[in-house]
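Lab notebook, bench 4. We co-purified these components, and the gel suggests they stay together. Before we commit to crystallization screens, I want a quick structural picture of the whole thing.
Request: model the full complex, all chains together.
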Amino acid sequence: MDNDSIKLSDFEIIRQVIDGDVNAFELLLVKYKNYVFKVVTRHIPYNQAEEIAHDVFVRAYQSLSKFKFKSSFKKWLAGIAIKTCYDFWRKEYGSKELPMSSLTEEQQEQVQHILAVQSEYSSDQKDSQKEARELLDWALNRLSAEDRMVLELVYLEGRSVKEAAGLLGWSIANVKVRSFRSRKKLRKLLAHLMENKGGR
Amino acid sequence: MKVSKENLTRIEKILIKAYGKKETAKRREVWQTKVMSHIHRLGPVKKAKQNNPLVFDQFLWRLAPVASVLILILATFMLSLDFVSEYEMAKIFIDDPIEFSLFQSFLI
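Here is the predicted assembly.
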């Protein structure tokens, strides 16, 4: 792949691919692989990232003829990446919510430790970050695929409702309602976890 | 024990921070080759389907006002010719068209 070909605009590359030049798709792959990995890693476990990113590019290639040259390719690709992550979670736990009763003592200890460590600077903070991430994963795993995606996009990533709706292909009203409910569920999970520990 | 709102907000903030610090996954060298070989197996993108809706989308709304004006003109024209057309139709089927029209009006 020479450097000059990378300077072609996305639209020109897409035109080439649509006109039958399959190899031109590699230009898009090279240009956006880091971006897709960044998006995917936020929503999917590390060990699944390669496979999901692979699916994202295959889906993008298959839908390239539907690409309207009105929006940017990057934005369009982000939408495909988010939908692929959402499909991963739907497949993973079939939109079933797990009961809140399955709290382990380890997680309850974690909450207390995270709160204690984060309150002041300590060398333990890196471990605490890891624990916080594990705790968040535990809580997210107890939400449905829909709630999980909305919570991550709106609440954890700080995207606007409109932006999240565009990425997921849902209505704004749906995202609004879902984001409110999913946050409430997360708070309930955390409160339950902390109550159990406190009550001992 | 009831959890304080303050503690809950604190733990939430910590979780948001932890989420933001997640590192991007590393990929193997062969990953790109694998994706491209998959793409090659799929063959060229089918473009026949995408052009028609695109052209249709572009011109549909531009033609809408012209179509509306045409419909309006035709409707006015048809209304003004309404009696004549009924008369002409009756003329084809019966001998005395005026009688036929009156007969129809009374029946309805």
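Residues 15 and 21 of chain A are 9 Å apart (CA to CA). Worth comparing against the SEC data before the next meeting. The longest helix of chain A spans residues 172-198.
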